[in-house]
Amino acid sequence: MAFLVYQSILISLAVLLFIKLLLSHTRDRKNNKFPPSPPALPVIGHLHLLKKPLHQTLASISEKYGPATFLKFGSWPVLVISSRSLAVQCFTTYDMAFANRPHWPSVKQATFDYNHIGAANYGPYWRNVRQIAATEFLSAQRLHESSDVRVGEVRDMARQLFLSWNVSAGSKDLSYFVKVDLKEKLFELSLNVMMAMIAGKRFYGDNIQDLEETKRFREIVEEFFSLAGASNAEDYLPILKFLGMAKATKKLDHLAELNKEMTQKLIDKHRKPGAQKKGNMIANLLELQKENPEKYNDLTIQIIAVSLLQAGTDNSSNTVEWAITLLLNNPDILKKASAEIDTHVGNKRLVLESDMPNLPYLHCILNEVFRLYPGGPLLVPHQSREHVFIEGYEIPQGTMLVVNAYHIHRDPSLWDEPTKFMPERFESGNAEVKKMITFGMGRRRCPGEGLAVRQVGLMLGTFIQCFDWKRIGDELIDTSEGSGLTLPKAVPLEAMYRPRQVMMDVLSTL
Question: What is the pTM of this model?
Answer without folding.
Answer: 0.91
